[in-house]
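ESCALATION

Customer reports they have been waiting on this structure for their group meeting. Please prioritize. Original submission:
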Amino acid sequence: VQLQASGGGLVQAGGSLRLSCAASGGTFSSYVMGWYRQAPGKQRELVAEVTSGGTTNYADFVKGRFTISRDYAKKTVYLQMDSLKPEDTAVYYCAATSRLVTKWGQGTQVTVSS
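Update from on-call: job pushed to the front of the queue and completed.
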């Protein structure tokens, strides 16, 4: 599977962005799709993920602010990010996991100004 992420940018604190990740190849419906982020000097961390059955899981630091969703027809996973904070600034990566193997897309930069 190949993953193409888009939608990052510069936004003021309190604003919103929507990230998209389009998948090609592979069997989209079989993957757990996730969004991760990596800030400078920090490790990559899970932000949110959605299973093939639609079950979602969120990191505590985004609960109530971010929403992950997937469109099977478009083979795309989204991350709606609301009430953004400066500490959300990072490179965001989408990932597709199946049978313990994770494929990564390229990152998209999200910068939140205070």
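Sent to customer with the following note: The longest strand covers residues 90-98.
Escalation resolved.
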